[in-house]
Amino acid sequence: MKLTFGITTGGGQEDYINKIIDSIEEEQIPDYEIIVVGSFLTARNNTIVYLFPEDIVPMWITKKKNLIAEVARGEILVLMHDYIRLEKGWYEGFLRFQNENPIWDVAMCKLKDMTGRRLIDWMGLAGDKIYGNVLLPYDYSNPKGMYVPGNFFMVKRDFLRANPLDERRNWGMGEDVEWSKRIFGGIENAPVIRNLLQKPLDVEIPEPEYPAIYRMNVYSSVMCVKEKDIHAWFRNEYDMHTPDIERPIGYKIEDYVYMQKRLERKIES
Q1: Taking residues 16-24, what's their average pLDDT?
Q2: Three-state DSSP class for 108?
Q3: What single DSSP character describes residue 136?
Q4: Prediction pTM value
Q5: Helix (H, G, I), strand (E, B) or coil at 153
Q6: pLDDT at position 145
Q7: In 3-state terms, what secondary structure has residue 144?
Q8: Class of domain 3-230
Q9: Integer CA distances (angstroms), 25 to 7, 33, 156, in order
Q10: What is residue 184's three-state secondary structure?
């Protein structure tokens, strides 16, 4: 089982990317490769760099991730932005997760800021009328209406090749939101997919099978290597932390009960 770690960067992050690669090497993974798409000039073992024309198409994050899927030799992709590193024991945790969950399409692990506080990882889709903006309990398992954050996720290579990101969108245009809706059944089938991928009418588009299998790896975690308080308001409004994680300021037990009821209605519908 070969892993491909795909790092997307807009350039100027040599120090951070070296820290990310250090964290991968420290895991002593027997079979892996690292692909950096963007500007990175340091020579590292097992690392391939694809320079990207940022001056022509800045922040084209969808193209970068699709390119990683296209050229990757590993069947499992670990995609991350240029400020997220593995925490010690990540690979051991991944093997445990894989043993317990042999069948999956997309997966997440715990994401922390520099202080160890939880950031957006296992969560409901922002703006969804039922979910609201919510970090979900790690044992919650219904993917409909969930959101895969673009800054870090794991995905089977062949799944991403078959369900690519929409390259008409770049960073900040909700590319991860659109992809999450599409793979978890948030939009309708062939006509929309045909238009999305700009396929001619004479090209057959298979009916997608919804939803994708989405799993949470609670045994591994990643951490930001720089200050990146991503959407802290998710925590402060409806934090759904599991009990083993320190709850941040703003958590209210009545909010938890309220959101649980809304989630139950979502499942029933």
Answers
A1: 95
A2: strand
A3: P
A4: 0.77
A5: strand
A6: 67
A7: coil
A8: alpha beta
A9: 14, 10, 21
A10: coil
Mean pLDDT score, 47-73? 85
Answer yes or no: are the C-beta atoms of 7 and 20 closer than 8 Å: yes
Q: Compare 9 and 93 and report the one with higher pLDDT.
A: 93
**Count of Cβ atoms closer than 10 Å to residue 185 Cβ:** 16
Residues 182, 186, 189, 192, CA torsion sign: negative
> What token pair was written down for 119?
């950031």
CB 180 within 8 A of CB 125: yes
pLDDT tens for each residue of 164-212: 998 888 877 778 888 888 888 654 433 433 343 444 445 554 445 557 8
Question: Do 111 and 152 meet the contact criterion of CB atoms below 8 Å apart?
Answer: yes
- DSSP reduced 3-state for 198: coil
Where are the strands (E) in 160-230, listed by range?
A: 214-224
| Number of neighbours of residue 173 by Cβ within 10 angstroms | 14
Query: Taking a C-beta distance cutoff of 8 angstroms, is the pair 184, 169 a contact?
Result: no
Inform me whether the pLDDT recorded for 92 exceeds 70.
yes
Give the list of residues 6+ apart from residue 17 with CB closer than 8 angstroms, or none. 7, 9, 36, 40, 42, 82
Please spell the DSSP secondary structure of 216-265, one letter per residue.
Answer: EEEEEEEEESS---TTTHHHHH-----TTSPPPTT--HHHHHHHHHHHHH
